[in-house]
Amino acid sequence: MYILVINAGSSSVKYKLFDMKGNSVIAEGIVDRIGLEDAFLKHQTSNAKETKIDSDIDNYDKALKLITDILVDKENGVIDSLKSISAVGHRVVHGGEKASSSVLITPEVEEIIKECFDLAPLHNPPNMMGIEACKKILPHVPQVAVFDTAFHRTIPEKAYLYAIPYALYENYSIRRYGFHGTSHRYVASRACEILGKPEDKVKMITCHLGSGCSITAIKDGKSVDTSMGFTPLEGLIMGTRSGDIDPAIIFYLVERVGLSVSEVNNMLNKQSGLLGLSTVSRDMRDLEQEVSKGNKKAQISIECFAYRIRKYIGAYASAMAGLDVVVFTAGIGENSSKTRAMICDGMDFLDMKLDSEKNSQLEGEGIVSRDDSGVKILVIPTDEELMIARDTMEIAQG
Ligand code: ADP
Predict the structure, then answer these.
(1) What are the pLDDT digits (tens) for 310-338?
(2) What span, in angstroms and rounded, lies between the C-alpha atoms of 89 and 96?
(3) What is the mean pLDDT of residues 167-176?
(4) CATH number 3.30.420.40 given to 2-147
């Protein structure tokens, strides 16, 4: 069974074609710079053959046409006919309060995605264009929506409400939604598989540390709290996003420093976080190099980054009244043993003990806690696309 996974962003469409027999990716690629002069398609097959096509791609219909054409192309393709594609899974960022799991896309589901345009103006509109384009090219193929927010729909009221006038929740749906849900769900389920633990009897904290970062408390298989909120700006320190700050800083910047609201918005989203603090880079690899050269600002930026995560781990252990498992994932979580060590340092009081040797030597997936650590610490490479493909297959099979 072949499942096509589509991630349509504001200027690109990423895709992966899965052969679900072995959960393997047989082709993947990206159509990038949609609507710009130098748009292109980059396509790679499982035998590492890479193709790049420069083309005039000014809309999502053309992007999807290029993708489906190359999948069946005589020279660069991997399937004989588009009829081999059993279903298409779409990453959709925001499902608001209505979407609590992945679903077959129907006119009602499209309405839900559109209702969330205001909540995710950069993501949901292109997600929807990807869906519309796919429906035109593959009209008889089931299309499935997998929402980033859906996993967090189990978060209780006391954790999703902000302490602002209740009418703002009622009238404007202002509440915590949480994001990266597909990633948190994937690594949580994989951690239980590795540890041989039943998902419904575990208190777990999953740390998705990439360019964007979020941390989730998962109790008995359900998300009960997460650090991203109404938007993906809240919570942890990220590559360029500030995460939690005192909201009064915004009034100060507008009223006293003279920045416009859009300048502050841009600053908090694009010039803050690791980049803002270090002043040199948003990228953890660069920062680790800078630290080795003695750069103090790079050092403090990483310390702030790790400290914020430690605070959340403490808070979430307390929210769940216990902790059994901590998982690290995404670019930094998977690869930076130094950051993991900094986060876990001195957490013995929680019975969370990192094995420094296992931690520094691990490549890929594995357990990095000491054998006598009550809390198991794991590193699990995330695979959101595989999760989307699995959901899609399950729904398409009815
Ligand atoms: P996204 O997919 O959201 O762009 P990633 O999950 O790829 O982000 O994570 C990007 C982050 O991971 C960057 O800060 C990058 O420096 C960091 N990263 C990737 N590899 C390493 C590594 N080997 N050591 C330290 N940090 C790494």
Answers:
(1) 999 999 999 999 999 999 999 999 999 99
(2) 19
(3) 96
(4) yes
